[in-house]
Amino acid sequence: MSRYEVDGVDIQTLPKVSLHDHLDGGLRPQTILELGDEIGLELPASDAASLGAWFAAQSNSGSLPEYLKTFDITTAVMQTEHGLHRVAKEFVLDLAEDGVIYGEIRWAPEQHLQRGLTLDAAVEAVQAGVEEAIGLVASHGGRIRIGQLVSAMRHLDRADEIAQLALRHRDRGAVGFDIAGPEDGFPASRLQSAFDTLAKAHFPATVHAGEGAGIDSIADALYSARALRLGHGTRIAEDIVVEEETDEAIVVRLGQLAEWVKDRQITLEVSPSSNLQTGTIAQWGTALTDHPVDLLHQLGFCVTVNPDNRLQSGTTLTRELGLLVEAFEWDLDDLEQVTQNAAAGAFCSFDEYEELADEIADGFDDLR
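and the corresponding structure tokens:
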């Protein structure tokens, strides 16, 4: 049993959907030690507990660029077919253990070519690990559905190539495209031709926006990338003015961009703990209770809750939901709403969505 409960229900037992979860941010510390030993990688700690603590400490810098430096270690042990296969398999098994029934794994294949893998071989290795894990979950009476989000690094110049990679694997595990890396100064419009290619092929994209940069970045992601979801999207709150707040009600005025995102129900992939670590919510405060996620949720935005990087944040989706229950007194209805939001935003077929939505509703009803 987890320590996180809502209305007397263990949150870990609830069906969950994870949309924003980085493969190179979800390694088990013991796996890093073992894979690192195989390649002679020098690590900052020699046991799993200490290594996990090191990642958490390094990630609490309040700076997105500093936070991203921790990935130098995780990607170093993910440069072979064996390493990628193992990491992907364990990643999915850990999701299933946490109650996730549908998950999308985002990762950037271009960061995993240092030991001779091709882009396609890297994607195939991850897919093989995913499929092995799905089979293991099924053999124990469970079920989990997983898709790959193939990411391009926004500050590099391979987006067109990575977009074509995603399209080659659209029927072999890839369900969507993403751009990641430093957001500020690297708008989606830099990669316009890649997004044009994807749009012409009717392939969905989510874009990291509203994390390391503000509403101009969000607007650009929606316009240039035709983003169906916003990775984090937290800083859309910069376009909301609170005009009056009492114990009974809150009166706000939405700017045109915020109104568009709300009215079109564009999915916000909010990652609360990560947002604290990277300073995303610094303008509102430094505690989780300062995070605009509750305001966005109460106003009817399509909020979803995600772990982002389970290793760096020392977290799980259960924990992220539990923290919001503690901070904002969310109840089962709130958790079901954000979970259904995630199902609606998932890059799957409409038939798969309907099945997923029913499974979520039944799962919550059974625990009420």
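(Above: one complete record from the training split.) The mean pLDDT is 95.
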